[in-house]
């Protein structure tokens, strides 16, 4: 029975070492961070653009009403 425990412990240690060496998860996290930064930048840019477009259409609408 102690041989089985030793084998299980060694297998667990091997799995932990493999997990630490694995880089796929790190790469996925890096891509997620880059994608979120791009989305944040796009949302910020669109917000400012949307405000300016809204003001422009309001000004055009006001001129059409008064003409």
Can you walk me through this structure?
By secondary structure, the protein is mainly α. It has one domain (2-66). Helices cover 94% and strands 0% of the residues. It has 2 helices and no strands. The protein has helices spanning 2-21, 24-66. The model has no long low-confidence stretch (mean pLDDT 83).
Radius of gyration over all CA atoms, rounded: 29 Å
Strand content: under 5%
Distance between the termini: 95 Å
SSE string, helices as H and strands as E: HH
Envelope shape = rod-shaped
What is the strand tally?
0
Low confidence ranges: none
User: Approximately how much helix is present in the residues?
Assistant: over 70%
Domain tally: 1
The assigned structural class equals mainly alpha
How can the largest sheet be summarized? none
Q: Output the number of helix runs.
A: 2
The average pLDDT is 83
Protein name: Flp family type IVb pilin
Organism: Azohydromonas caseinilytica
Keywords: Membrane, Transmembrane, Transmembrane helix
Transmembrane segments: 28-49
Please outline the helices and strands.
Layout: H1 2-21, H2 24-66
For this entry, give a set of tags.
67 residues, mainly alpha
Short description:
This protein is an all-alpha fold and 67 residues long. It contains 2 helices and no strands. It comes from Azohydromonas caseinilytica.
């Amino acid at each position: 029975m102690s041989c089985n425990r030793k084998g299980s412990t060694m297998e667990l240690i091997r799995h932990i070492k493999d997990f630490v060496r694995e880089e796929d998860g790190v790469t996925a996290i890096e891509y997620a961070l880059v994608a979120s930064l791009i989305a944040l930048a796009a949302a910020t840019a669109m917000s400012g653009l949307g405000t300016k477009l809204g003001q422009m259409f309001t000004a055009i609408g006001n001129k059409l009403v008064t003409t």
